[in-house]
Model the fold of this input.
Amino acid sequence: MRLWDILDREQRPSDDLPIYTAAGTRERDNRTISSGVPGLLLMERAGQHVAKAALELYPGTGHVAVVAGKGNNGGDGLVAARMLAVAGVPVRVVLTDARGLAGDAATNLEALRGYPVEVLDLEEVDRTLAGAGVVIDAVLGTGISGSPRGAAARAIEAVNRSKAPVVAVDVPSGLGADDGRAPGPCVEADITVTMGNLKPGLVLYPGKVYAGEVVVADIGLLEGGEPWGFFTGPRSVARNLPPRPIDAHKGSCGRLLVVAGSTGMTGAAALTAAAALRAGAGVVTLAVPASLNPILEEKLTEVMTYPLPEVLGGRGVVLSQAAVDPVLDLARDYDAVVLGPGLGREPETMELVRRLAAEIEVPLALDADGLVAFAGRPGELAARRAATVLTPHPGEAAILTGLSVREVQASRPVLVTRLADETGAAVLLKGHPTLAASPGEALRVNSTGGPALATAGSGDVLSGILGALLAAGVDPFRAAWSAAYIHGAAGDLVAGEKGAYSVIASDLVEALGDVLRGL
Done:
């Protein structure tokens, strides 16, 4: 799902979109009604947006089938049915529980009388859906708990058997609005028209797959309440990019030290350093095991290199503990440090990382093998005097926390928040979508990226982008989620040119200029 590409043309924002839980959305809804706005008016506005989405999909043949439940979600569908009938589109409505309709939904069922809309019961659902040009799923909303049962489950399964495109009202029926999970049958929508604000389940996996394209419908809810998080937009990322004054020079644009590399992993070091330069760092120095220094001097023209003491490990040369003092001396002359890409996991190198993390007094981005050094002991990072950003993928998050990868993936928002609180760091939990957390901050959900990023070295490019932003003085949390956005946008750009199968990490580095120019 690429939200920015498919939002309603009249209200496509460039700023961040707030994300509210189901309870938070109900609070906004109740506050709006308490202020004097009738619930019927909110339902009318919601139905108008649903009807508009259905009209955009309608092929001009057949009818629109509305499958409506007994709650307010069903009421939204009934309003849409009336609007479509007014527009001259043939409409048929299937009710899952005609006797259960009450309140505003019942009022809108009564309002259908006099319009050329056939209202049927659930026994007619398969026959009705068979000839539909578009199906509107208005069975269940955000109040669902657990797996759908009975008539609702039958209706959902019938919608999924239909060959017609599906517009879901608020959330696909059967989807957990707060966690994106589908414990039972769940509608597979082509478009979801969600009311008032995004819900977590529409941006988390696998919910975003069930939701298809997402349209945020402005129905006039009052602002207020604490959002669960924000879906990052390009304008906020652009605001985080430091301006380049006319008298800028390399020293004023951020000086970054990258400590990386071991035998067989010079590519990780090179990609991190190259990405940092392409992302705007004025000076990048790459500190590597001494015997690898000639390789990287040959490979990188614009990056300075610095040879460090090394030791022979089980898989080749790695940094030794004798590198601690040289790195600390170097770091005093830099604005930020990236530590970890391709370092290897020898015990001596892991101890080196822990000592450096404890003593480096500038912002530090810890990635890859640098994270593994804190396996089962991430809380030690809370003692750092300067800012820290952690960038684990699910496997590294599992190593840090002692959980399994499955457990990490099952509770990504909880896990990233917990890790941020425990370490005092800004944390980027990579994946789809990448999540960013920092103590006292609302969660950030990245809106860019996809399968094109599933290529070796992609994470090293992200570390370089992050390092460049940190070196430029960007707030660590803002640097983290901005780097994730830029990285994902580069992947999207290259995938559009080459296809997701053919993207390699160096392509991402080359695309950074176009992404940053666009921002």
Summary: The chain has 21 helices and 20 strands. The chain has two domains: 3-231, 251-435+445-518. The mean pLDDT is 95.
